[in-house]
Amino acid sequence: MLFLLIALLQTAEPSSQETKATLQSCETTEKGWVCHYQIPQATIVRPLDPAPPGVMALAMPTDPAPQPPRQPPQAPVAAPIDNRAEAARQTRLIARCADAKWYSPCLPGERKEAQILREAALNAATLRSHVTTLLSEKRCDDAVKTALEGGDLTLAREAREFCAVPQH
Asked: Which of 55, 80, 92, 113 has the most CB within a 10 Å radius?
């Protein structure tokens, strides 16, 4: 085996950028052969990329036009569920995992998500009920204001449209 290793080391041609390790000695120990090699010091210099892969470098114009002032970032608003499949998934998740016992097949992340979704659904139902009560009392401005304060823009829009239709 030693001769095979030496033969391989001698016949292997290093490429132009590789350096060759030199066999110094080999000895037999209780656990098998131990060989010592001298590895020459090599410094690998790689040219710096002007931009990492996948990133486009943008050239700046020499005479930039004045830019309008930036608007401050707005807080994200929870969007209503438009996707029926996602709504069905969330309903099933709430039914299956919101009040799950320790032996149920729900994962901890699913239980947490189901509890958060159930709480959000209860809050939305309470808000809708309150806005509907205000609309039944013909207090349109208060209904729209309540829906906006609750953060439900769709409900506020529905209330405004309901108030715009002439009632008999």
From this structure: 113
